[in-house]
Amino acid sequence: MSEYRSWPPDGSRSESELSCEEALARVYEFLDGELDASQHDGVRRHLQKCRRCYPYFDFERLFLDYIHELGAAEESSPGLEDRIREVLAAQPD
Ligand SMILES: [Zn+2]
Q1: How far apart are the CA of 51 and the centre of ligand 1, in A?
Q2: Which of 6, 48, 87, 89 is deepest in the core (most CB within 10 A)?
Q3: What's the CA gap between 38 and 65, in Å, rounded?
Q4: What's the CA-to-centroid distance between 74 and ligand 1, angstroms?
């Protein structure tokens, strides 16, 4: 009678289905390219479909771009700073 309760079995969820916490915990490694292929894909897919996490991811990416630009060129780029502020202002929290 209780057979139907075997769904969903623990641990059988697709590994690519990350929670928001898991995705955000890995976002730095994701951006640095330190995750293996399946982990990288899992984070990417979560960020693509999760509207709550995406602004955060986008901000992190902008921030890293900004750091890279600072390292690559002495000249700062005020336009990028404005974009980062826009992303921050658009965050749900
Ligand atoms: Zn999420």
Answers
A1: 7
A2: 87
A3: 24
A4: 35
Instruction: Mark 6-16 as b/e (b = at least 16 C-beta within 10 Å).
Output: eeeeeeeeeee
Instruction: Please say whether the beta carbons of 43 and 27 come within 8 A.
Output: yes
- pTM passes above 0.70: no
Q: What spacing in Å lies between the alpha carbon of 45 and ligand 1's midpoint?
A: 10
Dist. CA 50 → ligand 1 center (Å): 5
Helices (H), the chain: 20-25, 27-32, 37-49, 54-72, 78-89
Instruction: Tell me the torsion sign for CA atoms 17, 15, 20, 91.
Output: negative
CA atoms of 91 and 53, how far apart (whole Å): 9
pLDDT digits (tens, 9 = 90+) for 35-86: 999 999 999 889 888 888 878 777 777 877 877 877 766 555 567 777 777 8
